[in-house]
Design goal:
Largest sheet: 3 strands, antiparallel
Number of helices: 3
Mean pLDDT: 83
Strand content: 15-25%
Helix content: 25-40%
Shape: globular
Order of helices and strands: EHHHEE
Structural class: alpha+beta
Strand order of the largest sheet: 1-3-2
Low-confidence stretches: none
Distance between the termini: 27 Å
Length: about 110
């Protein structure tokens, strides 16, 4: 949950095995983002969470082609490396001192 005086978008992704990560990057990332991600799962998730947070922020959802915009070095996004996850928050004017307050992981019962 993110709260702000203007629209915000948030996405959190846990580190996990992503099948066909390279193919996904080539399909959904710009060429600059593909080069930045390289073989790094953390960079892949940084870009992925940034893209998802942006389309939540602007309300466009999956109607927007994810490779139609680049999220690298965008001042409207702030990304954190959390224990076991990557989180990106997107806002019109993100304050410098934003920090995640609490991240919970729900573990399904076996």
């Amino acid at each position: 949950l993110a709260v702000g005086e203007s629209p915000v978008g948030v996405d959190v992704e846990c580190f996990r095995k992503v099948r066909n990560e390279e193919a996904l990057a080539k399909r959904y990332f710009t060429p600059e983002e593909v080069a930045f991600a390289g073989n790094s799962q953390e960079r892949f998730l940084q870009i992925w969470t940034s893209k998802e947070a942006r389309i939540k922020w602007d309300g466009s959802g999956l109607r927007t082609r994810l490779n139609s915009f680049c999220v690298l070095a965008d001042p409207m996004a702030k990304t954190w490396r959390l224990p076991g996850a990557v989180m990106t928050l997107w806002a019109q004017e993100p304050p410098e001192n934003w920090e995640p307050v609490e991240i919970c992981k729900i573990v399904p019962q076996l």
